[in-house]
Amino acid sequence: MTELVVDYMQRLGESAREASRVLARASTAQKNQALLATADALDQSRTVLLAANELDMEASRANGLDDAMLDRLALNSARIDEMIEGLKQVAALPDPIGEIRDMHFVPSGIQVGKMRVPLGVIGIIYESRPNVTVEAASLCIKSGNATILRGGSEAIHSNKAIAQCLKEGLAVAGFPATAVQVVETTDRAAVGELITMPNYVDVIVPRGGKGLIERISRDASVPVIKHLDGVCHVYVDQAADAGKAIRIADNAKTQRYAPCNAMETLLIHESQVDAVLRPLLDIYESKQVELRGCEKVCALFADRVKAVTADDWAAEYNAPILAIRIVSSLDEAISHINRYGSQHTDSIVTENFTDARRFLTEVDSSSVMINASTRFADGFEYGLGAEIGISTDKLHARGPVGLLGLTSEKYIVFGDGHVRG
Amino acid sequence: MTELVVDYMQRLGESAREASRVLARASTAQKNQALLATADALDQSRTVLLAANELDMEASRANGLDDAMLDRLALNSARIDEMIEGLKQVAALPDPIGEIRDMHFVPSGIQVGKMRVPLGVIGIIYESRPNVTVEAASLCIKSGNATILRGGSEAIHSNKAIAQCLKEGLAVAGFPATAVQVVETTDRAAVGELITMPNYVDVIVPRGGKGLIERISRDASVPVIKHLDGVCHVYVDQAADAGKAIRIADNAKTQRYAPCNAMETLLIHESQVDAVLRPLLDIYESKQVELRGCEKVCALFADRVKAVTADDWAAEYNAPILAIRIVSSLDEAISHINRYGSQHTDSIVTENFTDARRFLTEVDSSSVMINASTRFADGFEYGLGAEIGISTDKLHARGPVGLLGLTSEKYIVFGDGHVRG
Questions:
Q1: What angle do CA B210, B212, B218 make, to 5 degrees?
Q2: What pLDDT digit, counting tens, does each position of A260-277 carry?
Q3: I want to staple B377 with a disulfide (CB 3.0 to 4.6 A). Which of A245, B93, B130, B345 is the partner?
Q4: Tell me, what CATH number does A254's domain have?
Q5: Integer Cα distance of A313 and A336 in angstroms
Q6: Contact residues, chain B, for A205 at CB < 8 Å
């Protein structure tokens, strides 16, 4: 059985590699045509899509999936509309491929510069949401990459039906059907194979829970663009404007609790206890946020705040819980963030230029902010027009990853018969 | 024993991480001071360096190292001069760190852009040449990274003596001695540990033979900037200028045989046999280059060319051997390169704009050239001012890697109390 799966995945990989050559040289118009024709196909396949999804929903209900999982899995007319809208938005984005930059003469007389090119073949591994199938495929098509999509087994019927629409869209634009391939086996060995075919797959993007991402990163021999923890901080500096500090610390924690860019630890300068911390506690309490403080916080607010335990500083709650620490200097705040943070997103609230400049330089995170809520760390908010994920790695893509994260640059050289002396 | 090594490497890693914070916020002047003070220390330690090197040379002679290895290992006054000159050149390069670019307003009112930052801690693993110790350390210091250097055991005394000079240079600039650390054990377990400490090491750069690089890439859990094969092609197009074609195909093969950017396979359009291939064969023969041809080449030049075997198209000879194939179209040439090449460096010789444009777009290599010798694929020739290696990967750095390859970009956001709605 596993041998059959290996064989099947190798064939997917080989045909994806071939298709990637076609996509790499495709015109912008051709790629956009594929996206818009897929949108049409989805629109005309609503009945089929909903019927396929109902099969997945029934099986998942029978398997006892919880309500949150079932909600993520469900397709309905509004969600199909969103997929169609998403395809149109990606079609409207500028094409990153082919951009030539920095061509300059060097002393030998050649001209050297760079040209933006697709990565080749992207493997996407994700969980229940079937809309990821369209979203990920559309970004890969636009950036000239072939893609192999491995969704959750609970969404297999929905994903196959969506794949059929993608095939129709690709055909209209004259692309091979193998430009986007959905893995049609639910055998887990397929994932193991997908992440260890460096000949056929150039990068893996896992989307899902931390467990999935850690497992894939550990076992992959193909590079992985990954997002692990989001332990984000807001530091209220000695020179903070109290109004801005309260607004930002409230928004970063409570606007939504689940996202990875929500604040998990509030660091506050000791001079800001009365002006900022006290009113913030009122706000958090009114919103039922559980508060856990360092010794100083507990000493001041014994009745309102629990003591942190050893694990709190590095915890990603994704819930209405907040850790709070009083610090006596900017240095202490920066050290805390670089030690306990996850290099995701951290913000300082300050009116002092030098403190802001130091925070910007010394905090080693993928997004570093001044006087803004950590909740802005997002591809759409940053104007990327799309987001394949957020990377907490330092190599290749860092922070929110849009179309550019699915591309690379090669050197190009123009000469006129030049040889090396 | 292995446990001791693990412990030792963990301590190196932890102190490198700490030192990286100091280097990351260092001024350009401070980094340059460390480089120039190291140059002074080398100049004043000539006797010590030569004595340490003599210990390595004696041991290596006793161990029966071959002449080529011994030559790479040897230090002398001229090579110390070169190390000093190299430090001065790196000090003169522009500092890439801290560059802020693309700051722009997005609809929410925040300003978003990017800032260039060091990667953190770089692990360099290399073989006999002691000059790599200075070269790699200087690039890491300039780019604000801490570094852990693991040279060959045959160069251990030389490397320790050089490390002493680096420590003196770091001290003059007020940097911790742990900013550059030479692994002082020759136990092989040290390498295994270095490449599996993602908490402490951000990227590994192996420099050496293919065996070393493959082993490290396979076993590393830290990202690796690597260079594997250099199977480079020159394609002489139907529309090639014969004079340029001959000059380039000669230079790409014979200017030097060993470098990774030397041509290994010549692809030639069938219309160019008399104008280009015939005179080229004379040149290659006069230089004792062994010629291996496809069936068509053998049919035309049976007495001058051997038949290729199955392995020749993918072979990296690094020697006076050349594979030659006659093709009947640009498509055939591009397919050959994408199938058998190593995505290193490939060049087309042509006067036809459309052929040049297609070759540039469709050949998936880290350097793609028009009317220039593949031998130009080099960080110094490209004007990078330095080269830590050449990457045949697509992610992060592709092609010759200079200072920028040792950096990353983080997002930065400026607001004025902005929160997400």
A1: 95
A2: 999 999 999 999 999 999
A3: B345
A4: 3.40.309.10
A5: 9
A6: none
